[in-house]
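Moderator note: this is an archived Q&A kept for reference. The question asked for a predicted structure of one protein chain; the sequence and the answer are reproduced below.
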Amino acid sequence: MKRTPIKRSSKNRHDSANLRRITPDLVERSGGIWLGWKVPRGDPHSCGCQCEICGAYLPDVIGARAHINERKGPQDDTVENIIIACRECHNHDEFPDSGLRCGTAEALRIVAEKNLEIAGRE
């Protein structure tokens, strides 16, 4: 397989400015504490986050952010379209409907409910 420049660099192609901006909000929504972007290399960016589908604790939010509806560009990086999911709940090979154990409709419901909960606290 030919390696493209994006694969050669270790930069995540889905790490848009929008996604970086909303990640602290996603951490709060999933019950965690945001530690920041400038943590020492190898340290987690968050702690206490839980999978929003099954409730499993996650070592970090990075790698657990999953798009509910297919990502077509940075405009799809919104708190309404991203759910925090563990590897058991987010697997495109096992779950063809958005790659999520609960399916697209249920994921959208979970996220909408949690977003309302957060908005009610503010």
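Archived answer notes: Residues 1-11 have pLDDT under 50 and may be disordered.
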